[in-house]
Amino acid sequence: MKKSIAIDMDGVLADVEAHFITWYEKEYGERFSKNDLKGKTEENAFPKKGMVKKFASTKGFFSTVPVMDGAVEAIKELQKNYEVYIVSAAMEFPQSLVEKRSWLSEHFPFIHWKNIIFCGDKSVIGTDIMIDDHLKNLDYFNGETIMFTAFHNIDFDNHTRANNWREVLKILKSLEKF
Amino acid sequence: MKKSIAIDMDGVLADVEAHFITWYEKEYGERFSKNDLKGKTEENAFPKKGMVKKFASTKGFFSTVPVMDGAVEAIKELQKNYEVYIVSAAMEFPQSLVEKRSWLSEHFPFIHWKNIIFCGDKSVIGTDIMIDDHLKNLDYFNGETIMFTAFHNIDFDNHTRANNWREVLKILKSLEKF
Question: What biological process terms from GO does the record include (chains A, B) (predicted)?
Answer without folding.
Answer: pyrimidine deoxyribonucleotide catabolic process
